[in-house]
Design a protein that fits this description.
rod-shaped, transmembrane, UQCC5, Ubiquinol-cytochrome c reductase complex assembly factor 5
């Protein structure tokens, strides 16, 4: 069973031109195009109301804000206890 699959894969890979000139690097344009398509999908395709980059930017902003709080650059307003007013 595995022998048959191995032969099928070898046959499929032999169909890609440029074996003698480029060797295994003949597959680089294919993976380059796949990467470009993935990037386009991540930028332009909305899942729900957000794209991947919307989520990335929001999470990055949240991490920066949290880091500023930890560094003491931002002080959060803490509620003051109600003091009784003397008359």
């Amino acid at each position: 069973m595995f022998q048959r699959k191995s032969q099928n894969i070898k046959y499929f890979l032999s169909l890609v031109p440029g074996k003698r000139r480029f060797g295994v690097y003949r597959f680089l344009p294919v993976f380059f195009c796949i990467g470009g398509v993935m990037e386009w999908v991540m930028i332009n395709v909305r899942i729900g109301r957000e794209t991947f980059y919307d989520v990335y930017r929001r999470k990055k902003s949240e991490r920066e804000y949290q880091q500023k709080i930890e560094d003491g650059l931002i002080v959060l307003n803490q509620p003051v206890a109600n003091k009784p007013v003397a008359k």
